Amino acid sequence: MGKSIRDVYGETLAELGAEYPDIVVLDADLSGSTKSKVFGQRYPERFFNMGIAESDMVSCAAGLASVGKIPFANTFTVFLTTLGLIAARAQVCYGEMNVKLAGAYCGMSDALDGATHHATEDIAFMRVLPNMQVIVPSDATSTRWATRYAAEHRGPVYLRLSRSEYPDLYPQGTAFEAGKGKIVREGGDAVVFAIGIMVHKALQAADMLQAEGISLRVVDLLSVKPIDRDLIVRCARETGAVVCAEEHQITGGAGSAVAEVLAWAGVGAPTEFVGIQDTFTETGKYDDLLKKYGLDADSVAGAVRKAIARK
Amino acid sequence: MELSIDRQRELEALCLRFRREVLTAIHKAQSGHPGGSLSVCEILTLLYQHRMHISSPDDPERDRLVLCKGHAAPMLYRNLIEKGFLPADCMDTLRQLGSSLQGHPSIHTPGVDMPSGPLGIGLAAAQGMALGLRMNGSKARVYAVLGDGELDEGAVWEAADSAPKFRLDNLCAVVDYNKVQLDGTIDEIMPLRDLEAKWRDFGWHVIRCDGHDLRALNKAFDGAEAFKGGPTVIIADTVKGKGVSFMEGQAGWHGKAIDDANYEKAMTELGGVN
Prior knowledge:
- The complex is a heterodimer of chains A (311) and B (274).
- Chain A has 311 residues and is α/β, with parallel strands linked by helices.
- Chain A has 13 helices and 12 strands.
- The longest helix of chain A is centred in the N-terminal third of the chain and has 15 residues, at 5-19.
- Chain B has 274 residues and is of the alpha/beta class.
- Chain B has helices spanning 5-29, 34-39, 41-51, 73-83, 122-135, 154-165, 186-189, 195-201, 214-226, 260-269, and strands spanning 64-67, 142-147, 171-177, 205-210, 232-237.
- Chain B has a 5-stranded parallel β-sheet with strand order 1-2-3-5-4, with helices on both faces.
- In chain B, α1 packs across α4, α1 runs antiparallel to α10 and α3 runs parallel beside α4 (73-83).
- Chain B is globular, with a radius of gyration of 17 Å.
- Chain A binds chain B through residues 24, 45-46, 48, 50-51, 53, 55-56, 59-69, 71, 86-87, 90-91, 94-96, and chain B through 60, 64, 66, 106-107, 113-118, 120-133, 135-136, 138, 154-155, 158-159, 161-162, 166.
């Protein structure tokens, strides 16, 4: 196993603190969980615990940005993107403020806390906001890049982070580019466009399908907004069968973003959506939840077979 | 900060002119918020034309103001014009397509430090500015101008809680306490009870004054500036629609366009048509 995404984020943010004296970090009484505490311990004068007040935190971040700071606002993904949404929309995005929103526990990664604490609509909320960029890392290396990118890019960025450990995927020093996805496995019969944990599930599915003689290409989108139109169109055209896989509702998230690109480009490839099927989730162990809600390798493989059959 | 009798008279004349020009713009646009623009007139005019240090809209050392009650934008715009940040004739374009004078303040309007409109969230942003400015070693002050109806929003009280924790004595909130919100009086819609006690309990230095008396307001801002160790809130007693008899204290004039007959009446009361 690799490293917990939240741990990598916390360490990286603290490292960036030395390089960027304007970085300030806010949390809503969850800094031990989001790992923003690592920064807070190193730079107490640049760390603000706002208490359990997400709206206050995001607005305060907007104010800090307006006077030249680079604020990172942290809390559980679901609260950040709901209770913090009006401030994210009306001040951060409409005001073009240089604020970074880091959602610590995406999808069902806060597994045992149940549906109230699962973030399964956050990409939809964030990606529709003008000026907002949406980045979803998939391992330790891409998390380090995403955190640095957020600090260096001037403008609002939403980082979709996880409580969970993700296997290592990219060697250290891998070059990433904003708005660019990566083909993490070549294949010609179908393509899976995945984000986060689902990149790993898709790679497992590719192994399973290989035994059946199906050659599956796997793309890690990394950035839902801006999205890599060229790569999506090319892969869909070359394989002729598409699966979108995300730990999010199937409406409004990364799959919808891919479908928008394909519709715009006039690519008529059959497309299947792996994600949470317009339902609320429940308490359970993370792996059990991923299986129950159709987010495991078997589900991806099944969707690939369906997409290929529809060619 | 000194306010001579002569300067007071000048500012009073300016307020009268601003009231006329703001109503003229709202009449021309056939859309806007006369009531709350008139009640906040002296507060904004004293701050922008007398107290705040703003040499240019992008001077990093400038004092900041967040018009949390963003619907009073026309009175803000008229003040920014007077500062020279906007062309003198742009009031005519209020709420028109392509205008820099949006219905509610936009970041693209020179002199606007934070967009506003959705009520409740402005104070928290002003707090962030004050925090950041203090970290920058700046002496600049930050003002947050809130409506009283706005105090219904829970987000106000999140910031009311946190700003004293950070001991932000460079932050001054002003409540335009005109006692009327959109659907009716404050007492009918959502009573605020003892407003002074409420803010005090949250840890604020509280000053109460007549929000239409420039001298009283000036003294209140002096008090806010002199107070150290925490933020100050000035609860400014005002009258919604102040200056136009038939608008005064009337919820009906919160966000209502002005017809020609009422416009003529208002202009007569305010000392002549522009």
